[in-house]
Structures are given as structure tokens and as C-alpha cells.
């Protein structure tokens, strides 16, 4: 049960790190040769390697965006003492402020985890959208607080 709890904490840290664009900590959650494959309504994205993933994700989670990603209902299966799989239900909202667009929906994540030197790492992660809604906003949201606006990287829109 301790390993299952450690895997849950790993995935919770993943969601926190992407929404706060904490790329330094996010990098510690992945295996060096992680494989990522995300399928949305308007995109399909694949990348292999932690450094390539971090370089790409930093372009999406920045001072001109707001992310809100929650992973629910984990189904963790231990395959061995150092291998596990997990299925997670994602509910998310993503605002692209420079484009006045809101994307929200749900997806299912399928993950593979490896225990390396006593730590669980994400070895493979993929999701496919159950639904995705992309809305053009008439105006930018009136924010009273915007963490990434203060702490996120400044990128050109």
C-alpha cells in the first residue's frame, strides 16, 4: 500500500507542477526516456525524453495561460516491486489568455511507473479526451489573482 500511495502522490505532484509551471520539480517526476502521447479533440502530441517534454510543456504553461488540472479516481496496479500502471480520470480547464480561448473537458490517463533508486517515476503517460470544448471568449477574464502571470515564464503570443 505504501507504493500505491507514493504513486498517487507522484501523480498529484505532476498536476500541481504543470499548473504552476514548476518545471524544475516536474522534471524530477519523469524517467529520463519518458514517452508521452496526448490525444485531444484538436491535437495529437507525442514526445520521448524528459528534456524534450519539459521544453515543450514550458511553451504551454506560462505567464499567458491558466491551467486547472485535476486527476481523480486512480486505479493503480502493481505489476512487480518496481513496475506499476495507473489509470486516472482528468478534468481540466486551460485558458490561453493571449488568444482569449478556454479549453475544458475530461480525459483518461494511462500511465506506467518505474521505481528507480527507491523513487517512483513516470515512465510513460498518455491520455485521450472523452470530450473537449474549445470556447472563444468575448473578453479576457477579469483576474484578481494569476499565479502564472507572476511566476510563469514570459513568452511572446
UniProtKB/TrEMBL annotation:
The record's listing under InterPro entries reads: NTF2-like_dom_sf, SnoaL-like
Q: What domain of life does the UniProt record list for this protein's source? A: Bacteria
Q: Which Pfam families match?
A: SnoaL_4 (PF13577)
Q: Which SUPFAM superfamilies match?
A: NTF2-like
Boundaries of every SnoaL-like domain copy: 3-126
What is the protein's given name? SnoaL-like domain-containing protein
Q: Which organism is it from?
A: Kineobactrum sediminis
Amino acid at each position: 500500500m505504501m507504493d500505491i500511495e507514493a504513486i498517487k502522490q507522484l501523480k498529484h505532484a505532476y498536476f500541481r507542477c504543470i499548473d504552476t509551471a514548476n518545471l524544475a520539480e516536474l522534471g524530477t517526476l519523469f524517467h529520463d526516456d519518458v514517452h508521452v502521447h496526448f490525444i485531444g479533440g484538436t491535437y495529437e502530441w507525442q514526445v520521448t525524453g524528459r528534456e524534450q517534454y519539459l521544453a515543450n510543456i514550458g511553451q504551454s504553461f506560462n505567464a499567458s495561460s491558466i491551467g486547472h488540472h485535476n486527476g481523480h479516481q486512480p486505479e493503480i496496479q502493481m505489476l512487480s516491486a518496481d513496475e506499476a500502471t495507473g489509470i486516472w480520470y482528468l478534468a481540466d480547464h486551460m485558458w490561453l489568455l493571449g488568444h482569449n480561448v478556454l479549453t475544458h473537458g475530461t480525459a483518461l490517463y494511462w500511465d506506467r511507473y518505474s521505481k528507480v533508486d527507491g523513487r517512483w517515476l513516470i515512465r510513460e503517460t498518455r491520455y485521450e479526451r472523452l470530450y473537449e470544448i474549445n470556447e472563444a471568449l468575448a473578453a479576457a477574464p477579469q483576474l484578481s489573482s494569476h499565479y502564472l502571470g507572476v511566476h510563469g515564464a514570459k513568452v511572446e503570443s
